[in-house]
């Protein structure tokens, strides 16, 4: 049997643990370990996977590992995820899109590099998800939605057809949008909020 390629994960918090579960379930990669800003903090393994070093070690780690995924979460701002994603690209890492086998992504949809589609999310026909996005558990991305890069669509959010979500936007858990609106770049939509503005 061919050995699975190894992937390193950047960020050791709660979102990382959820990502580990998705990576393991998808089965394309073996998690080699975690890169985190240790800075004297906790360097214990995450779900059994070792801490391999800090951001400063990424150039050296590239000699051993070709694949990486940003597993830092995103709420108020996408700045940290965006910085790490760009750093990985500059160092020549491959940034695969990861999709849970318990999610559904239409064959007529597109998912950008470094994005993760988590358990029971649904990405419908004609939708596109940009690079470095989180489509979290049970989120619905309906037909023809365009999700810009560096966005987080949280658990249970519903994005109805034809919506365009600007770069770096956060949509909280159970947020709901009406169809065919434009959500500007960098927006923060709180949990449970109904987005009703027309484009």
How would you portray this structure in words?
The protein has 199 residues and is of the alpha/beta class. The protein has two domains: 6-90, Rossmann fold (3-Layer(aba) Sandwich), CATH 3.40.50.20; 97-190, UDP N-Acetylglucosamine Acyltransferase, domain 1, CATH 2.160.10.10. Helices cover 15% and strands 26% of the residues. It is built from three helices and 21 strands. The strands form four sheets. It has a six-stranded parallel β-sheet with strand order 5-8-11-14-17-20, with helices on one face. The chain has a six-stranded parallel β-sheet with strand order 6-9-12-15-18-21, with no helix packed on it. The chain has a five-stranded parallel β-sheet with strand order 7-10-13-16-19, with no helix packed on it.
Would you summarize the structure shown here?
The protein is an alpha/beta fold and 199 residues long. Helices cover 15% and strands 26% of the residues.
Secondary structure elements and their pairing?
Blueprint: E1 6-10, H1 14-26, E2 30-35, E3 51-53, H2 58-61, E4 67-70, H3 79-90, E5 98-99, E6 104-105, E7 110-111, E8 116-117, E9 122-123, E10 128-129, E11 134-135, E12 140-141, E13 146-147, E14 152-153, E15 158-159, E16 164-165, E17 170-171, E18 176-177, E19 182-183, E20 188-189, E21 194-195
Parallel strand pairs: 1-2, 1-4, 2-3, 5-8, 6-9, 7-10, 8-11, 9-12, 10-13, 11-14, 12-15, 13-16, 14-17, 15-18, 16-19, 17-20, 18-21
